[in-house]
Amino acid sequence: MNEADSEVKAAGSAHDGPERAPSNGVLLAAVGALWMAGMLWSARATITGRADAEMEVTSTAYAMPGAVSASLVAGAAVALAVLALLARAGRTPGVTVRFALATGTGLCIGALGALSIITINTEGWLYAVVGGTVAAAATIGGALAGLRNTRVTAAACWGAVAVFVVGVVLSFLQDSLLPALGAGDTAESQAGAAGWFSLLQSVLGGLVGAVVAYRVLRRARGRSGEDVGWPLYALAGAGPGLLLMVGEVLTRTAGARVLELAGKVSELELTVQQMLSTARLNSALIVTFVGAFTAIIAVGRTMGGPTAAEPEPETGTGPETEAVADPDEIERDARAEEPQTVPSGKDD
User: Is Methyltransferase among this UniProt entry's keywords (predicted)?
Assistant: First the structure.
């Protein structure tokens, strides 16, 4: 009875493995932390490099969305690494403890990021708002890492990094791509080309992010021998866009005062802020849907179609066996085995 119970327990552990065992996210944590540090350093350098207060405010509004998105991914990535290290050390905390630990890790990362912004000017509320938004983003990212399907969260984070890399590469190629997209000497043609460029960046980012997330899940399946269902593949593919949407929501809510203050600089700046907010939201939606669709297609290609049933092995009841057991043949064999008597032709 004890042996049977142990087998059932082992089977249950193998079944729960994909959900409970955290993936090795040390490399992801390093990439996420570097991304966050780079965005915060760039924001700090841009803000402190402005000569007047108005340009300082607008620069802060421009830098905040990127810093928030990077902090969201960094909080999740570092929390995944902490959970992975605990698993490798043989410690498997419960659901509540794991969630609290992951959320606390994200909060610590967010506090470090907020400190780099708040110290720009500790007397004003502007940088306190930005720092609080960054801390909130990292905390939410850590909470996402505390959910059950850690490998899906890790795949979404890798996809978000890929979307960021695509954006950086296209920004370097922007001057070459805009003329190919119809940019000319008129403002109308330049605006149209900018719209096409934004669409290209969103679609390409969604494609690359979904492929990266898909490959991460496939590699995790190869290591553990357990796979996740196709809806989770779709969720991982849409994950980069969903993270962008969460970042945009935080920017519009927690950082709303910064955007409002930037909009008060001038009517032109107000229009620019509204256009940028709309463009970021539309881009996040495109990345989400393109990523989910791409991931579904990718996992669908690996699903085999129905196979023909293999013939069952012969068990002695098939037509060939019936032919061997022919009654006439059995009777002939029996007659051949009977002893034959030869008549002597004499009476006894």
Answer: no
- DSSP letter at 340 equals P
Residues with pLDDT less than 50, the chain: 1-23, 307-310, 316-324, 345-348
Where along the chain do its domains lie?
16-301
Q: Are residues 24 and 84 in contact, defined by beta-carbon separation less than 8 angstroms? A: yes
Among candidates 82, 81, 71, which has minimal Cα distance to 246? 71
Residue with tokens 């700090």: 44
pTM for this entry: 0.79
Secondary structure element (H or E) that encloses residue 322, with its range:
helix 319-324
Write out pLDDT tens, residues 338-348. Answer: 555 555 544 44
The reported pLDDT for the residue numbered 20 is 41
E strand or H helix at 255: none
Q: Which residues of 263-292 are buried (b: 16+ CB within 10 A; e: fewer)?
A: bebeeebeebbeeebeebbebbbbbbbbbb
